[in-house]
Specification:
Layout (H helix, E strand, L loop, with lengths): L8 H9 L7 H12 L3 E4 L6 H12 L9 E4 L3 H14 L7 E4 L5 H11 L3 E4 L1 H9 L10 E4 L2 H6 L3 H9 L6 E6 L4 H10 L5 E4 L5 H5 E8 L4 H11 L5 E4 L3 H13 L4 E4 L5 H13 L4 E4 L14 E4 L6 H8 L9 E8 L3 H11 L3 E5 L21
Parallel strand pairs: 1-6, 1-7, 2-4, 2-5, 3-4, 5-6, 8-13, 8-14, 9-11, 9-12, 10-11, 12-13
Helix pairs in contact: 2-3, 3-4, 6-8, 14-15
Bound molecules: adenosine monophosphate.
């Protein structure tokens, strides 16, 4: 099926090994024009297969005998840099495409050494570190043929615009430019008009709705003092191969992981206080199944992709409703079914209301508390849809 889009044999073999049976909609729409060399705007979120949508053409177009950087992909976070690099490395393995990820949080000297040793065709990086390497003269973009801005809206939100401008200024005039973004505010449209060719291809993929279609959700309302007890009961009841538990704070993640370990769970905490190398080690252990229950703060809720994650637990509901969608979207990816089980202590009724506003009645609600629901909780909602 990828062959019909113009993808060569070696890359098709790598795609097959990754287990992709057929192209996702964004791949179907983006791969042919990208192979033709067109610029492209893709409005799509993670989970749509957008990485392979640009990764496959990049791999295909790499001139492997030329050991110079031919494609640069800018991403907002280290986790994403690591993940995107891994995916392109997988896709390019039979063509011999060398890929390298650069990001802050790792000693720059070590990265320079590796960069010079690997001599990659493709560099994936966060804007700050890429700029740094350009300024040091160790990264050269004179032979660049493809420039990708991934998650452009998030990069702008994170204040990377000046770094991006600097980097763009170092790229040759003749090149293919790709921009992916989940949203297209005016600021992004301006960037598009400024740096992409007029005859660009534009691909819009409907935002994924992990909440309704691919994740079955359950929310337990509990008395505050019963939170831990109910959580542990459900953790025992629900079978899973791999699961994440989201906590509100780093301290809570550490404490809960310690407690779960004492109960015999194969678990580890993951949050922003840990060094990059420790976070990577934890994620590696999780991918390989050495641990199967990750206790994480929201640091892990965006971008991270664990294909066989079956259950997301929210030890407590997150403060903002969008985080809820991001968290539960870690499961139910790429056509699989996922389960999200959340616990809402009575004191968090307000959070529950906000989440319900955003996701509608896409979840099953189980009220285990005798306490009256917060005023207004039932407003605008038919009583009968609650399980009491
Ligand atoms: P992305 O949107 O790039 O974050 O991709 C989401 C997930 O879907 C990743 O685990 C990819 O490896 C996977 N994926 C990408 N393309 C396909 C495909 N054609 N078939 C099945 N899975 C895919």
């Amino acid at each position: 099926m990828f062959k019909a889009l113009g993808v060569g044999e070696e890359t098709c073999r790598a795609i097959e090994e990754k287990g992709f049976k057929k192209p996702t909609p964004i791949q179907e729409k983006a791969i042919p024009p990208l192979l033709e060399g067109k610029d492209l705007v893709g409005q799509a979120q993670t989970g749509t297969g957008k990485t392979a949508a640009f990764g496959i053409p990049i791999v295909e177009k790499t001139e492997v005998e030329k050991r110079v950087v031919q494609a640069l992909i800018l991403v907002p976070t280290r986790e994403l840099a690591f993940q995107v690099a891994k995916e392109i490395k997988d896709l390019g393995k039979y063509r011999g495409v060398k890929v390298f990820a650069v990001y802050g949080g790792k000693p720059v000297r070590k990265q320079i050494e590796l960069l010079q040793k690997i001599r990659p065709h493709v560099v994936v990086g966060t804007p700050g570190r890429v700029k740094d390497l350009l300024e040091r003269g160790v990264l050269k973009l004179d032979n660049l043929s493809t420039f990708v801005l991934d998650e452009a809206d998030r990069m702008l939100d994170m204040g990377f615009i000046d770094d991006i401008k600097f980097i763009y200024g170092k790229t040759p005039a003749q090149k293919q430019t790709l921009l992916f973004s989940a949203t297209l505010p005016d600021e992004i449209k301006e960037v598009i008009n400024r740096i992409l060719k007029e005859d660009r291809e534009e691909v819009y993929i409907e935002p994924q709705k992990p909440t309704v279609e691919t994740v079955s959700q359950k929310i337990y309302r509990v008395d505050n003092e019963n939170l831990l007890k109910t959580f542990l009961e459900k953790l025992e009841e629900i079978p899973f191969g791999k699961a994440i538990v989201f906590t509100q704070t780093k301290v809570e993640a550490d404490r809960l992981a310690k407690h779960l370990r004492s109960l015999g769970f194969k678990t580890a905490p993951l949050h922003g206080d840990y060094s990059q190398s420790r976070r990577e080690a934890v994620l590696r252990d999780f991918r390989r199944g050495r641990i199967n229950l990750l206790v994480a703060t929201d640091v892990a809720s965006r971008g991270i992709d664990i294909g066989d994650l079956e259950v997301v637990f929210n030890f407590r509901l997150p403060q903002d409703a969008e985080s809820y969608v991001h968290r539960i979207g870690r499961t139910g990816r790429a056509g699989r079914k996922g389960i999200a089980v959340s616990f809402s202590p009575v004191s968090d009724d307000d959070r529950f209301i906000r989440i319900r506003k955003l996701v509608g009645n896409s979840f099953e609600f189980v009220n285990l508390s005798e306490k009256p629901l917060l005023k207004g909780l039932l407003k605008g909602r038919k009583k009968k849809s609650y399980k009491r």
